[in-house]
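Tokens as discussed.
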């Protein structure tokens, strides 16, 4: 099975990573060049901003 996910925010990135871990061929599409570069290196980067 092959799937594509558009958007690598909190939901798309986690969902895509989970599908890929189960062996499904997964393509993530992002308009952020830095995020796409890190994904090619198999680095999953999630930044959480905490507001008080």
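Sequence:
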């Amino acid at each position: 099975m092959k799937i594509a996910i558009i958007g690598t925010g909190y939901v798309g990135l986690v969902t895509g990573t989970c599908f890929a871990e189960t062996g499904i061929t997964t393509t993530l599409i992002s308009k952020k060049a830095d995020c796409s570069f890190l994904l090619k290196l198999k680095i999953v980067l999630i930044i959480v901003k905490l507001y008080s």
